[in-house]
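During the practical work, I selected for study one protein's amino acid sequence and its backbone structure tokens, as given directly below:
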Amino acid sequence: MKDEDATAPGLDSGEAVEALESAVTAVDEAADLRQELAAAKDRALRLQAELDNYRKRMRKEMDDERRYAQLPLLADLLPVLDNVNRAVQAAEKSPDASGLLAGFKMVAQQLESVLSRHHCTRIDALHRPFDPHLHAAIMQQPSNEYPPNTVIQVAQEGYQLHDRVLRPAQVIVSTQPADGDGEE
């Protein structure tokens, strides 16, 4: 009877050990479940942050796509504008083409106005420092008038859409004069 007094009422010692082991297992399972819950919360937070970053990236890409959607059309219009400007220059040299010259000048102004309305602007290059992001050097020429790496002539106008170069300006860039008489 002494053995019965040492254990809980209604349980023998084997059952008490089993109950204790079961309680320890339940505590361990609860701790494991808490760890899994914490890990799941962490994954959910990371996935939410990743989703937010994805949304921001997609919004920026869509904004850029809308902003630069006219790039192909404007690139196709630039050669037309170049030809109109060449026709204006040729008409200026011919004394009997004043009516033609006035018509071409109006068309050129209209084309430039359309480009401007669509945020396509001419790159201002003449007498500016050479910038390889905006200009394409087609030749270098010694000059006493301008410092080295200055655009001294524009062979073909460059254009940009917003802040993106549509076509770089083709330019002639100054270099230091050659030693001697200053001429090459």
Notes: Confidence is low (pLDDT under 50) at residues 1-5. The longest strand covers residues 135-142. Residues 13 and 67 are 80 Å apart (CA to CA). The chain is about 55% helix and 15% strand.
